[in-house]
Fold:
Amino acid sequence: MSIEREVNITCPHCDAVTPFNIWLSVNTSQDPELKEKIRDRSLFEFECPYCGEKTAVDYGMLYHQPEDKLIVHYAITQDNADEVYHMLTDEDKRGAFSSLFEQNYMIRIVRSRNQLLEKLAVFDAKYDDRMIEIYKNHLETAYREEHPEAEQIEILFFSTPEGEPMLQIFEGNEAKGVVPLNNSSYYDLLQRHGIEMKPMQEDSPIVNQDWVKEFLSPKYFEKQKSTEYEIN
Ligand SMILES: [Zn+2]
Structure:
């Protein structure tokens, strides 16, 4: 079910206060028009009726695309992200989520609007988000070799209107460049790592750069081995 709520927004340009609808929950089979409005960011854009100024409004939401058995939860606070993470990863606490696991849903938690849009772009383009994160990790390493002074780097996947897969590199909030995703490198990664991985739906609900660091650390493989040993 989609859930809307009205909030008052103060225009940063003219100070007028106007109601604006935010979406706590979006269900794309119930409200198919919202699918595009998220992707073109208009759901996050407030246009002041007095001065016409457009302002981005950031808010968390549960994005549900039942036709593809996909949920992306955008947690606006770390506490909320932790709470949902524990619900999803502890079988006894799944509650309402249990039936989604039975239906083999893909569920992810993200911490920013950009990450929400990125996940949707990755899944729209039918990529494995874990391989995309590993790919980004390699790209960041290469970028840092050329830019040793770079501090915080974030790389985000997106598709051009023509459907070309791209990666955009940010230092802090500043966009530094865009590189196309090389599909043959992507499929090399998939071949190399895919075999070691669980199905996407059964993996961690949080797939980001921290996930990659854990995945690439020797500890992960020790853990995998010990589980296998117990099973045998
Ligand atoms: Zn205004």
